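Design request, tokens follow.
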């Protein structure tokens, strides 16, 4: 693991940890003692979709191992620049469901708010790596348009915070937005989709828990962990605080070739999630975004993995294997 002092990281606020993220491929390779032959491809892919790795996540990556499953999620590679049939810049056709800035309305009964254009970590398979965030950065006035949209549609019972990563936004802004949504009578649930408690567990602060749990809305949080090595003690402690506060915790995993496409890894991930108070929710087939084709796992292999997982784990530890398809009214089960 990285020798950078844990005490040094612990002395930083979550905002400072975010600001001090590794953004230079050359620095990343040097810190991880990786072969310099990776640099040329990393620099080229970095120009298309930038590198970003926060320090707490960096500490969990093994030195000298180019196949480390956490490293492979964040290291730019030259093959990201290769065109692949069936891959595009908007594989879920989200732009057609983006009626006003900051709001995506695809499914009945729930809307998604692009609360932040930023992430704490740039995952190389990100399906929004080409999303026009510059057109979806509402200020207070524009947020009022989104709030009016929600208030005028009584079928909407759940609001989902997304991004980017919604927890990359300040607690002050999130508290204001949550309080505004809580004033809309027909909205009953608030869901937060985030990777920040995984990559910077210090993001789970008292203020964060306060805005998440202090209104009448029923809160849930869908975290995003792809490998059991991501779930260290600090992450477990952060998730424990959320669970103790009454937040329902679920996990989404993306099935990724060379990272978690094996039965032992998926089994350990489900069991470790349950240990830290999180239920497996979805196992997603890859969204076919340009640059991510090398991560794809075939549907037959994915179905076989889930069948094998069902044979060795109780049902509540087996995530649903799904794919998101444009124009579908829900995520499509594959098994």
């Amino acid at each position: 693991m990285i020798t950078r002092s844990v005490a040094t990281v612990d002395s930083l606020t979550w905002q400072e940890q975010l600001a001090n993220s590794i953004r230079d491929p050359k620095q990343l390779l040097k810190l991880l003692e990786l072969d310099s032959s990776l640099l040329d491809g990393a620099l080229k892919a970095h120009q298309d979709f930038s590198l970003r790795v926060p320090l707490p996540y960096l500490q969990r990556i093994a030195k000298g191992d180019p196949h480390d499953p956490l490293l492979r999620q964040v290291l730019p590679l030259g093959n990201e620049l290769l065109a692949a049939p069936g891959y595009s810049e908007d594989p879920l056709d989200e732009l057609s469901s983006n009626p006003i800035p900051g709001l995506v309305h695809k499914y009945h009964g729930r809307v998604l708010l692009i609360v932040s254009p930023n992430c704490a970590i740039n995952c190389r398979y990100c399906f929004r790596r080409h999303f026009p965030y510059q057109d979806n950065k509402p200020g207070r006035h524009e947020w009022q348009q989104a709030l009016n949209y929600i208030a005028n549609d009584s079928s909407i019972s759940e609001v989902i915070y997304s991004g980017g990563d919604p927890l990359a936004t300040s607690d002050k802004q999130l508290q204001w937005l949550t309080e505004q949504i809580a004033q809309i009578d027909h909205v009953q649930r608030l869901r937060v989709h985030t990777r920040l408690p995984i990559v910077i567990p210090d993001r789970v602060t008292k203020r964060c828990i306060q805005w998440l749990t202090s209104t009448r809305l029923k809160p849930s949080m869908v975290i995003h962990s792809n490998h059991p090595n991501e779930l260290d003690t600090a992450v477990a402690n952060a998730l424990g605080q959320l669970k103790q506060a009454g937040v329902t915790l679920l996990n989404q995993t993306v099935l990724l070739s060379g990272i978690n496409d094996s039965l032992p890894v998926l089994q350990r991930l489900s069991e470790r999630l349950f240990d830290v108070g999180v239920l497996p929710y979805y196992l997603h087939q890859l969204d076919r975004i340009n640059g991510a084709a090398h991560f794809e796992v075939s549907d037959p292999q994915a179905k076989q993995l889930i069948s094998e997982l069902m044979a060795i784990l109780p049902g509540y530890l087996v995530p649903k294997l799904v794919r998101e398809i444009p124009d579908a009214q829900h995520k499509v089960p594959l098994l």
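Comment from the thread starter after seeing the answer: thanks! Residues 3-7 have pLDDT under 50 and may be disordered.
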